[in-house]
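Field reference: sequence -> structure
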Amino acid sequence: MSARILDGNALSASVRSGLAERALNLTARRITPCLAVVLVGENPASAVYVRNKVKACEVAGMRSLRFDYPADVKPAEVLERIAALNADPGVHGILVQLPLPPQFDSDAVLEAIAPEKDVDGFHAQNVGALMQGHPRFIPCTPYGVMEMLRSEQVPLKGAEAVIVGRSNIVGKPMAMLLVAASATVTVCHSQTRDLAFHTRRADILVAAVGKARMIGGDMIKPGAVVIDVGINRLPPEEGGKLVGDVDFEAAKEVASLITPVPGGVGPMTITMLLANTIESAERVARGR
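Structure field:
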């Protein structure tokens, strides 16, 4: 048995087509969806992510603003920029690219973004709304995963879902979304005893821990749906390529459906950022 590949690039292209139509409808009403991105420092990976987000906005017919700061910028300067963007009615989404340099309190920066423009879904108010089952903005990576599961009509009610990783960005919101979909959810982490015991029970396995190939084929239930959120670069002596948290070659012989790395969850993360920004603009258009 060999798993079917869940192609994030293909699904992303399909979803973005619908988003472009929604953006066009808004522009006809003189509201152009606008995402403002703040980048601090010269982290190469962050620069690539920001460039991809800006390009995606342009392709979807949205407006993008980019604000770059040196790594030694004072936090007050960045917070002043966020305040100005909060007050700008032409800006519908604000994203501060993480990680930030050591002089920043990342939580304080994220809390400075107006909840109604927090298209990353990280503000405490939006996290609380998600916890209560009434999300305003869903964090983009878990949102993308849910869209992937929906596109494949993966049964969620009553399914055993296991998440490896408990970050605020992926693991915790992923758990809340799967609970809301009536799955039975287990969240594993670095202190979990006998990780394989849990992963082998999973009908749906989401790996989001940031450790290359830590989930082997022998840790996967036959026929499971495997969603690999991890993006890890191997050292030069191992080829230097990007791999996920799952040993793809071994896992695809056991799973029924699996996401590749790259080309799986990554494209959907950016797509759902666009979706959140357009949703924000539509709320403005509705007068909310």
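Note: The chain has a mean pLDDT of 95.
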